[in-house]
Amino acid sequence: METVYGLHASLAFLRNHFENVKSCILLDNSKQSRFAEIEALCEKHSIACRHVEKNDITAAVGDVAHQGLSLIHISEPT
Fold it and tell me: Of the candidates 30, 9, 35, 34, which has an alpha carbon nearest to the alpha carbon of residue 21?
């Protein structure tokens, strides 16, 4: 399983390859307008989207520039 993180990379992947997205994780306080499109795309394509603490995202991807806002798990292409 691969991971895509960061706002622009996540949006691009959701727009173009939503069928390979297994789930989305957003920072718990990410109820901001800049994340609305990610949540809308997840809802449109029935992708589970959950809100977690920043430490949970950092633990999943490491100390990288994930922007503290999104993490998308990619399933293997079919």
Answer: 9
Cβ-proximal residues to 10 (8 Å cutoff; 6+ apart), any chain: 4, 24, 38, 70, 71, 72
Query: Residue 13: which of 40, 41, 50, 49 has the closest Cα?
Result: 41
pTM of the model: 0.78
CB-based contacts of 16, cutoff 8 Å, min separation 6: none
Write b or e for each residue in 16-43: b if 16 or more Cβ atoms lie within 10 A of its Cβ, otherwise e: eeeebbeebbbbeebeeeebeebbebbe
Q: What is the tens place of the pLDDT at every residue in 1-23?
A: 688 888 888 899 999 999 999 88
